[in-house]
Amino acid sequence: MRGILTITIMDMGLTASRRRYYHDDTATSVFLAGDFNNWARTGIPLSKDEKGLWLAEVEAPSPGRYQYRFIVDGERWVEDSNNNGTKVPDNLGGLNSVISIE
User: Distance between alpha carbon 54 and the CA centroid of its chain, in Å?
Assistant: First the structure.
């Protein structure tokens, strides 16, 4: 089953929604980590809704470019494979996804 991950970024009353997809039928927890939260492993939890969508509502950080990954089940660091924007090496052999906030 394909899961849909939606992160809603809130900024001054305006809402911008971004959808991300990934395959994982066995995930029991998902967290968002990035340089905007010092890569905290449990800083931003996502919740799975009744449709099987992993969701988080996140207050937008200051404008800039931010690297991020998803942490699945506390152990697997997963890049956002549907982020068609920039990806950068994570210096561990993988890639970090990049989001720009204006």
Answer: 10
